[in-house]
Amino acid sequence: MQEWQKSSPRCQSFGVLLFDGFSNHCLANSIEPLRAANMLSGKPLYEWRFLSLDAGPVTSSSGLRVAPHARLRDEGGDMLMVMPSYGFRNYLNWPIGAALRSAAGRYSVLAGLDTGSWLLAEAGLLSDCKATIHWEELTGFAERFPETAVLRERFVIDGNRITCSGAMAAFDLVMHLIGRDHGQALALEVAQLFMTRDSARSHAGSGTSGPVNRALAAMQANLEHPLSIPVIADAAQLTQKALETRMKAELGAGPAQVYRRMRLNLARKLVGETDLPVSEIAVRAGYENASAMTRAFGGEFGQSPSEMRKIRH
């Protein structure tokens, strides 16, 4: 059973180890959800620092130049994301392996993203672990490291080792971590921020099943004119009872509560980013009148729309 809402006040610190040839897409998909979680929660849930082996600038596969904050050997924290992507075989050498083994003593968790799994395994840091890698490298990876149980998965979490198969999977991984650490309500809100209206990829791969994703997609597409829960269940190709059971197991809340949160998330976005009257916001969020929306808004977020606007201004 997932938890719908959790309170975890401690800010987690991530190091992002970049190499020349890293993927912009993988980097953005790893960091942008963390930024969004901070913004939406109004709290510093995550902080991150870009690293290289010598603190020198690194250049992505498409030419983006990044000036790291520090050298790897000077940093530590909750998680180190190892992100070589293209040209990773240039980094399969003893000094880099030694640097990663040293970092394992300063970071609680090591994560190999995209082809970063290969660097971790070459350093002896995935022995007797379950792991994955970019699927183009999966066969060679399994042959090279027989002591690692190689799986064709989007991401694998095995104790204090995490591996991820590519840029799109990095987004799924980080969404999973947000939901695990801070509750599915925040993960859903982050997912909404990145979804288009017609996106069927609801909840951004945070561990939800196909039927629940279909239900979330139907909800997302019908915020202004809410559907009944039986209609949502039909869209999910489930009975209403089965949908209730699945959503509680996967998200920690039933469809009515999840749908209500999605509509109120939209209302909060409009309160914070526009000067629309509350009556108009209520309509756009699927409420018949402003009073009903204001009561629901206060119950969900602990302040009224007008109070939130005062803080904004």
Automatic annotation (TrEMBL):
Keyword tags: Transcription, Transcription regulation
Record-linked SUPFAM superfamilies: Class I glutamine amidotransferase-like, Homeodomain-like
PROSITE patterns in alphabetical order: HTH_ARAC_FAMILY_2
Pfam family, one: HTH_18
Domain HTH araC/xylS-type, residue spans: 213-311
PANTHER family recorded: ARAC-FAMILY TRANSCRIPTIONAL REGULATOR, HTH-TYPE TRANSCRIPTIONAL REGULATOR RV1931C
Protein name: GlxA family transcriptional regulator
Organism ancestry: Bacteria, Pseudomonadati, Pseudomonadota, Alphaproteobacteria, Rhodobacterales
